[in-house]
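Batch 3, record 17
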Amino acid sequence: MTALETKLFRDLWHLRGQLLAVALVVACGIATYVTMRGAYESVASAQTEFYRRYRFADVFAHLTRAPDNLAAAIAQIPGVSSVETRIVVDVTLDVPGLPEPAIGRLISIPDKPSPMLNDLCIRRGRYIEPGSREDVLVSEAFTTANHLPVGQTIGAVIHGRWEPLRIAGVALSPEYVYEIRGAEVFPDNRRFGVFWMSRAALGPAFNMDGAFNDVALALAPDASEAEVIARLDSLLEPYGGLGAYGRDDQISNRFLSDEIAQDRITGILIPSIFLGVAAFLIHVVLSRLIITQRGHIGLMKAFGYGNASIAIHYLQFALAAVLLGTLLGAPLGVWLGRGLARIYEDFFRFPELRFVSDVPIFLSAILISALSACLGALLALRSVIALPPAEAMRPEAPARFRPGLAERLGLQRFFSLSTRMILRSMERRPWKAVLSTFALGLAGAVLVVGFYFYDAIRYVIQVEFEAASREDVAVTLNEPHGSEAWYDLSTLPGVWRNEPFRAVAVRLRREYRSHRAAILGLESNARLRRLVDVNLHAVPLPPEGIVLSKNLATTLGVSPGDTVMVEVLEGERPVQQVVVQGIIDDLIGSSAYMDIRALNRLLQEGRSISGAFLSADPAEESRLYAVLKRTPAVAGVGVRTATLASFQSTIARSLRISVGALVAFACVIAFGIVYNGGRIALSERGHELASLRVLGFTQGEIGLMLLGEQAILAEASIPLGFLLGYGICAALTRAMQSELYRMPLVISRQTYLYAFLIVTAASVISGLLIYRRLCRLDLVSVLKARE
Amino acid sequence: MPGLRWFAPQADRRREGGDAVFHVRGVTKVYRVGDVEVHALRGVNLELFPGEFVVLLGPSGSGKSTLLNILGGLDVPTSGEVLYLDHDLRAASEAELTRYRREHVGFVFQFYNLIPSLTALENTALVTEIAEHPMNAEESLRLVGLEERLHHFPSQLSGGEQQRVAIARAIAKRPEVLLCDEPTGALDYPTGKIVLEVLERVNRQIGATTVVITHNAAIAGMADRVVHISSGAIAEIHRNTRRATPSELSW
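Prediction for the assembled complex:
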């Protein structure tokens, strides 16, 4: 070992506390990078692999009914490489162990396994017996959520008849990676499942013999999706086509791709916060080390060491912190990443989701952190390199102070001497104070962001599940019915209130813009389902005209008073201009609302309903469910509280881990900043503080003088942290905003309080560690030495 | 905290002849430096009287600084007895020693030890703010001849001026004891003389028992008594018949 290396190791040992504090911040940076980058690559590659191996389709369309021979015409569309026609229907299920009715989506499959678009990955059990009316393959999310074994029988109402379905096997499909009903935002895997069954059995049951009502296409590599969609739409129009769409609008793919895009952003943003703070800390620690070792540096130069070898010597300190940080952070990142992958498995179903933690990720993590550390170190080294040896060996001139801002403003009499000392020391190096405050502010911001997720979810629940949806049960009928159905629903057991709705698929057009949407027709005095905006204000439904989600209005480029062209995609497919009466600033979806009577008129039909929202006597709940499960006309039943509970438990699990990690990491930043700041202040001012002890100041008094600066920085950082946190949350909500939903920008007082308490606690703990060192200050030896 | 002022203020400050301020009997001090025991003091006996000016003379490593630190409550002896009036400094707790320094002792060091972020006036005020019967900070700076430099920071003062600020800071609390460790050690000849003159004047005017450490034998001339220390023990105590003024000294 060379002498310089020996010195390096001794110095490292001497600085171990500060080095550890820096290394912990580096570790957080590396851990978050490995976790988030790994999560991004894992999910992205799982998606690509799943889509490729199981032939995820490119274009999708649903229609009322078309004869099988139309498939040949569809295949003729230029750019279409293969066509898969299917029968897809939603039915009501009676699942063992589930009091409420569930909704099953039945999808036809061939009798024998053959390569098809949206192919199935069979996880357990076997493929269906040819022609079996009972055998079904069931989605894994549903069987897992309901603890259903292979061989279990589930009751279903299939076209008005009660039929048992037997689980032959458990399957995954690239079409349902995120398994959700079209109109929902949150998955409810207990009450919605996908069932694949024999086309030979499904066809007759739904009057689809020799016909289909759903089609999926794969495109040739050079095909134009828009062109194919346009041609497909015109082919399907006579058959009740609801409008074809590409992968971008396929709901599961949409959610999954949004998630991957977000991972990509957070995977860059969060690690950069930590690595930036680490670079700053390395700069601060090394700058101080270099000042205390000025003499050594001069000596080394005098002995003939070149600038390069001295610079490398000090760079090694930075690299030591990176090395230690990597050793701590990489395993932590892998561990957290595996946890995150398990959370993803709750939401997204892949044949295989392996957390990717490969060499390139580690290498880039190390490289990025080493670069940021070296940047911090080089800025500190600049002054040393410039120093001629003789000057370096001379002790540094006494710290220069000048009257501070307080004096210039004539305010000094308001400050005690110790406050003046603190203020002047901050004013002497304003950038250090500003950057420390900023870095501590980032810790607070990370906390605000972490707890914000809870606030946002709580608010979404408040808006969607409490203010907007207030029914107990939402019943969807298999097809529109006249008002007699509404009276029938009123006579169901325990029903208190019954509000009908009419939902219809439409295409909205405004000049060259168009968008597929559903219009929900409600009674204008409806109480169980209301239009509620982001501020929790109920928006009245006008008797005429249409109310659009802000999202949808933006897409179409319309404002209140404009007209939109409504093309109904059902029945007689009427087309009509409707005036936009209002725009609702809501959180979820791209919805359109009309008064139910106005909608009936638009559809050129009499009083007609698609279903109803019910409030019911809880005591009669099980009887109500039992009847609904076996009512032929009912295609789906949504139970608000059950959906809410399932949503909350899924979200709670995933938030616990990610918020827990963010809190821990923020504490590390706060600790790193305050501890290093305090240690450096102690080293800079040890002499001064010892003098004060000699003059008769108590341990506590000088403790205050030393830590006062850190305390002021910590306090100043708190409002800054709140501001930064708010800004990051605002940026996140913008970045995460999609057509499907957006996060409300609401941050509770509690969130700010927690952030404040945690930053304060982390600062106090590091302050106490510094104070312990202060108590060990050796007065005599400090005074003997000249700085 | 009333009643905690356990050292009564010295009302009657006569020069010598009265009861001793300090009784030092059989004091030893052993430091452990690694595996080596260093005997810094090997049985020192000494009494110091109100208002007297004492010079501790000896080569470096003789133990004079250790003795001064023990008198000032910065260090405690390994064995022996140190009494300030009727109070036992050896048995005093850390908090009691702090209180003792705060109320009764003024220190002056070779390297001034001023607070760089405070002006001359503020450095002095630092002490007057925590003392019980201090003089005005400006007054104490006037005593050392720095009334023109009140608002200068240490980095704007010469070495001699900085040392005079240190003296002003030490005397501002009207200490019973003024302890100076090599006060001229870092100063050039004329500046050193000015500082000595200040010490001499302060000793006369506030009547504090003044102990000055030096290895410069020429300074001994201005003392009432000169204590020669070597190898941790008192070799000789010499009394000057007449205190020379600093201007009469030369080295």
